[in-house]
Amino acid sequence: MEEFIGKNVVIDVESPYVYVGRLHELRDKTLILRGADVHDLRDSTTTREVYVRDARVHGIQPNRKTVHVRLEKVVSIALLDDVIP
Questions:
Q1: Which of 10, 20, 29, 44 has its CA 20 to 30 A from that of 73?
Q2: φ/ψ (deg, to 5) at 72
Q3: Which residue, 60, 68, 56, 78, is CA-closest to 10?
């Protein structure tokens, strides 16, 4: 994942959250995002896929300066540029 550092990524986790932001750092137990959009899918009527596509098309709308995501909860990570709009 080191090739993702400094790039915008999408992180899917086990919970109904999705994280979109610039991967700043990899640590033993966490991924650190900067300028991140942390979205709880329970707060909207959209699906995870639609939300991520919208972020790809319209850009990231940050609501956190820095976020630490626990690696043990990560299901997948992808470059935002790899999301098919």
A1: 44
A2: -65, -15
A3: 78
Task: Give the domain range for residue 50.
Answer: 2-82
**Residue 13 sits in a domain of what CATH number?**
2.30.30.100
CA–CA distances in Å: residue 32 to residues 42, 46, 54: 23, 25, 22
Domain count, the chain: 1
Q: Which two tokens stand for residue 47?
A: 């699906």
Per-residue pLDDT of the chain (85 residues; tens, 9 = 90+): 899 999 999 999 999 999 999 999 999 999 999 999 999 999 989 999 999 999 999 999 999 999 999 999 999 999 999 999 8
Q: Please, which residues bridge with residue 20 across strands? A: 10, 37
Q: Which residues contact residue 83 at a Cβ distance below 8 angstroms, ignoring those fewer than 6 apart?
A: 10, 52, 53, 55, 56
